[in-house]
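Forum: Protein Structure Q&A
Topic: Joint prediction for protein chains with partners

I've read a bunch of threads here and the consensus seems to be that you should model interacting components together rather than docking separate models afterwards. I'd like to see that in practice. Below is the full input, 678 residues plus whatever partners are listed. Could one of the regulars post the assembled result?
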Amino acid sequence: MSDPVASHPAPLQSPLLEIDDLGFAWPGQSELLDIPHFALEVGERVFLKGPSGSGKTTLLGLLGGVQKADRGRVRLLGRDLGDLSAAARDRYRVDHSGYIFQQFNLLPFLAVRENVEMPCRFSSVRAQRARQRHGSVEQAATLLLERLGLDPDLHQRRADSLSIGQQQRVAAARALIGQPELVIADEPTSSLDADSREAFLALLFEECRDAGASLLFVSHDQSLAGLFDRSLDLNQLNRALRTPQV
Amino acid sequence: MHLLRIALASLANRRFIALLTVVAIGLSVCLLLAVERIRSEARASFASTVSGTDLIVGARTGSLNLLLYSVFRIGNATNNIRWESYEALARHPQVKWSVPISLGDSHRGYRVMGTSEGYFEHYRYGRKQSLRLSEGRVFASDPFEVVLGAEVARALGYHLDQELVLAHGVARVSLVKHDDKPFRVVGILARTGTPVDRTLHISLAGMEALHIDWQNGMPARGAARIDAERVREMAACSEDQLCAQALQPKAITAVLLGLNSRVATFGLQREINQYRGEPLLAILPGVALQELWSLMGVAEKALLLVSLFVVLTGLVGMLTAILASLNERRREMAILRSVGARPWHLALLLLLEALLLTLAGILLGLTLLYLGIAIGQDPLQAEYGLYLPLRIPSSYELTLLGGILCAGLTMGLVPAWRAYRQSLADGLSIRL
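Posted by a regular:
Agreed with the consensus. Here's the joint model:
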């Protein structure tokens, strides 16, 4: 089922994620993104400041291969996403990256455990890695949930019966299962209070390090930036916004 | 499969709407199956009402009318056949057996039929099955003996040796009763699923005896009355030809004929239709049955068509419910996309949903149908003489159900396509 070209990255060169001369515009609109260069190293944790309207969501769509760039290249693990077909991009994304969004990003009607295991159901690569490391997908889910501080008696509960903070930790476990090389977090802490925000980040860092994953953390909350290896501002990165359209 | 689990859980999450959808489909499927089953059973029991009879002869009337009153006990004869004509028919060289039938009286809504003992011997129904007695014997020399159809005995709770009074005419409420000449139950027939079950059988002599003292269509009064004991004496005195002849009918309603050779059927039919003694009509039961059924065929097809449309309505209801849910489920779709579901996964998910709803609807429909048959079996049999067996679905019914499933799946293509398009546009995150 998995196309060897699509699922296996080219021989690893640094960096993990690289953007070159990226340009994108929604149909009928002026150019929203124009990013000359951006790179994310293996194991690196980067804070990307992106207020609303900065093209943040669109950029994440391009990184995930949901949208296709008008020009330029997005390379994940050395492979140009633009070279892949839409289906292959989808598969490549799931095989190699995990996502954490704002609140309400679990399927409310499934059990906590089922939510965590889901990436492994759609990606054989991640299922295989989970089995290699923990014996089974179920075992991997249990372990991750416990490390993120969710007691076993919560694992079978419906996802929407948990508190927001717990749900975000479940989402983190889901992003990390099967050890994707890249974790992309989009405002995952915006619904948490300041204390749980830092606690959540500490856990996320620890798990990313443990899994060897790079972390791209997008938020408008500058106060967190100091905790990361590097901090960038999308407004600086994106030329399209710096040069006002006439 | 994992998608199936998600589809089930998602449906369970919207269980109220899902349940209503399933009920709508279930009811419509039940209606369709019920119509189809009543249709096929009615046709089957209809076609098997009479067999082994080559010709039915009555006074000249429409062939359908003759069939209806002689076999189905529906409607009335407009005229009778003289006894002499019957004797001429019975003596005909081509005729193997003949059974006279005399109708006109009733008992609590059930028709009374005067006939000869030959009726029990020669009448055939279904696949040439003959009548069987479940209890007792057929009537003999005593004119006041009656043999009950199975349904009559069951519905009225009659048993052997019970006495009953017949009523003049066939109205459910009869003003004139033959209460001076009670009949005794001597036999009860086994169930046939034909109008025989709803008939009381007496001898022609008994039929004649009921009206022996009648004058001008009214019972005699006073000294002119002849009571049951006197009639019995008349029937017993076989050596005295005069008194025995008093119980011989002057006219009968119809005759069932069996011929020596089926080849002779058309010839004899023509001969009877041209009989000089009085205007007679002979019909072939099979042909007349066919004619009657083709008459009802239009109504039957219309009914089936209507119930097919009801099923379609149920499925459109499902389509509406799924489509209406799509917008509020955009987040669910986006989440699935973010954990690796590809657009065709989402399309498949919605297709599965339509399939599950339709399948559940079909199962509910079948359950309702069998429940309905189990409950309605007896009343239907008693009221309409229609016997619905609790049998597994026929191949035609399975074809119908398969068609419904395909239609449900086809309906599912619409939301599947929309979810596919939507997921491409929405991508991984959606803020609602």
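Chain B touches chain A at residues 2, 5-6, 9-10, 12-13, 331-332, 335-343, 345, 427-429, 431 (CB under 8 Å).
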